[in-house]
Amino acid sequence: MTETPRAAPDVVTGSIRLLAEQGWDATTVDRLALAAGISRATFFRKYGSKEDIVFADHAANLERLEQQLARAGEDPGADPALALRDGVLLVFRHHLDHRERALARNALLRQVPQLRDRELITSHRYERVLQRYLRSALPDSPGRTTLATALSAAAVAVHNAALRAWLRAPDTDPSAELAAQLERLARTLVAGYEDGRPDGAARPVDGGTRPAVVVTVLDPGADTEEILASVRDALG
Q1: Is the pTM for the entire model greater than 0.85?
Q2: Residues near 234 by Cβ (< 8 Å), separated by ≥ 6?
């Protein structure tokens, strides 16, 4: 019998919940397959390993984000700050729309340190998607690559901070506040580059036109204001 399109999300959520409730090491793939009502072979074919299923929805989410940013990139009148805001909100709303899954995954990540490494890798994937879009969407200037690097990293940091806050109070909906923070972040960093340049060009990097990578160290619990201040300082 063919499974309905809703079966996959239910299997993902149910598997993550089972792993969180029964323990990572104590829960086998056989147990997950049994709970999902499918064979072990089918589970591996559709979802991969236990670690894969924990992050199974991110591949589709990344694809949706890329498609949305691609549409913005094809629009000559698109505002990069708004496109960035809407892209990050797309990702954030996915967590809110799958509340039970997000809460179960958070509980599991708190139990299993090795999954936090995979979570970090996943965050970097979102960052790279945003960075690719910004490198082409921001005004052409010697510092565009640097600005795209800083802005994509800061946007993901703001998203993650908002997600952590929501996970602590999941009955709230901070989407509107996050949208305002993201737009302010983008415009603050772009303005910081343009400040003092009468021609509107980005501030050149010392030692030539080759952009440098901006590195800033953030506390995991940093709020939006701290993130903005840290990135502004790094941009000099």
Answers
A1: no
A2: 150, 214, 215, 216
